[in-house]
Amino acid sequence: MTRKRRGLSMTSILVLALVGTITAIVLGAMAVFLQTYQRSLIRSVQTSARQSVAQVGKTVEDYLDDVNSLMELLERKLEDPRQDRDDFFAAFLQIRPDVVAVTTYDAAGGLVDCRSRGAKRTEIYQNLSFDPNKMDDYADGYVSTPHVASIFQGYYPWVVTLVAPLDAPGREEWIALDISFSSISAYLNDVGIGQHGYCFLMDQSGNIIYHPQQQLIYSDLKRENTSLIAGLPDGSNESGSMIYTLTSLENSHWRVVGVSFVEELITESVQEVSRILAASGIGILLAAVIISFVLFRTLSRPMHGLTAAMRQFEQAADNFTYVPVGGAREVRALSDSFGQMVVQIQRLMEQVRAEEVNLRKTELRALQAQINPHFLYNTLDSIAWMCEQGRNAEAVEMVNALARLFRISISRGHELIPIRSELQHAESYLQIQSHRYKNQFSYSFDVQEECLDYLCNKITLQPIIENAIYHGINGLVDEGEIRISCRADGDDILFTVEDNGTGMEPEQVQAILRKERSDHTGIGIKNVNDRLKIYFGPAYGITIDSVPDEGTRVYIRMPKVREEAEYEKR
């Protein structure tokens, strides 16, 4: 008796896998250590950045508090009618050389008084510190962004302007204080975070108030992602290779932003640790390679074969033939289970395919069975009325048209009929409706001869024409017109039904394509569209192009079909 050869057990394989797992753990521990070391350096820099930004914020807040105090002093002095302004401003401007100019304005925003450098000025070059169009913003006080003062020709300092209303009666209504921003700008220029980090000011909306690299930003040589920064909370925030540290000022809508770079944090010590870890990792990886080779010989190769078989089964399940793989006992058991699963799935696929074919045929019959009894009732009523009026010839013609209409609708149970028959069906329907509507519209056909012998879904044109009559032409004062065309378009057939009716809005077009049926429509346009897609695929169906008060054009696309059998098999 031949003894069966037994492969390695899963226990043996797990022993080998354990060695590889240890290698992975060591590598992971090295990576975690390095990452933790780097993060500790980043946290250290973040702490330093928060301190620097907090200091900048405190300095700017003190600056703004000082400016506000000066403004309050000026308001009190100017609102006091007993105050000697000349003596006050002479002393004030001498004590505060950082004040560039103090200007007052009337209710219309016109300049009343200007004092600078210890004297009253009468010649003004250009005033950029007060905008009469912003007086609504000035009503509760206003602090401008830093800008260049241009009141005096040849003297253009960098200033911040405070504007406030005056309460005392008099000809002045507004006061503006231009105070030098050079001390704060110089301070911000000297603040550094790391080797290349810096601080700048922005408002709550993300607009830059001051930037130490302002000229580069104005020249588009440097950009700040202000839209991202504006949405960040106060504190340190990492974004890619950048660290943004923000603090909001309590006495204004400004924010101090500190920018530092993660790359700067990779110091020589981190690089040295990385080299040591890399050398250790190489040795461990060499051991892991040897272990992996053993695993490949015992487990991986059969598993790869099983994986490849599964992939082939996914791509071509119908014609797939599975050849079992070898390997460990557990792998062979898995292979046998997969083989049984393949057989069961293929059997189920055949069953589902047969059920889908039956379901599709049932859906088609249900869709084409929606014949509207109102149309038949109205047509027979019209025929009876013609007979009573003695219009027998017209009644006979209408009866013949109705007979042709229903004969073609039945079509001996076929879903596909020749285009020639479908056009006759449409013409019979138009003849009946023309009699019913007392020739309120005309119609015409433009058909390529080569299209007549191809097949199409029956009762395709009639619902489209019915919609054109009821919803387009029926509301016209003038005579309506319906044009039906049939053209070959490459490998497709393209029907077009066009009317000069009232047209539709895009919302109405979408509603028609979603509606199953209406008060008049027997087989709704949606059902026609569904039948085309069920029978021929999603690339075919109905599209509608309509313009209000101009008309509607409906396109019906289907493939060229010679024999119904080729689609019956689907």
Task: Characterise this structure.
By secondary structure, the protein is an alpha+beta fold. It contains 15 helices and 19 strands. Strands 1, 2, 3, 4, 5, 6 and 7 form a 7-stranded antiparallel β-sheet that branches. The chain has a 5-stranded antiparallel β-sheet with strand order 9-8-12-11-10. Helix 9 packs antiparallel against helix 10. The two termini are 54 Å apart. About 1% of the residues have low confidence.
Features of the shown structure:
single chain, 570 residues, Beta-Lactamase, Heat Shock Protein 90, seven-stranded antiparallel sheet, five-stranded antiparallel sheet, 15 helices, Sig_transdc_His_kin-like_C, transferase, transmembrane helix, kinase, two-component regulatory system
Largest sheet: 7 strands, antiparallel
Gyration radius from CA atoms, angstroms: 44 Å
Alpha carbon gap, first and last residue: 54 Å
The portion of residues assigned to helices is 40-55%
Q: How many strands?
A: 19
- Large-scale geometry: flat
Fourth CATH level, the homologous superfamily of the domain at 369-568: Histidine kinase-like ATPase, C-terminal domain
Number of H- or I-type helical stretches: 15
Poorly predicted runs are 518-522
Give the C-level CATH assignment of the domain at 369-568. Answer: Alpha Beta
What is the average of the pLDDT values? 78
* Known CATH architecture of the domain at 369-568: 2-Layer Sandwich
Strand content: 15-25%
Which fold name corresponds to the CATH topology of the domain at 369-568? Heat Shock Protein 90
Assembly state (oligomeric): single chain
Briefly note the structural class of the backbone: alpha+beta
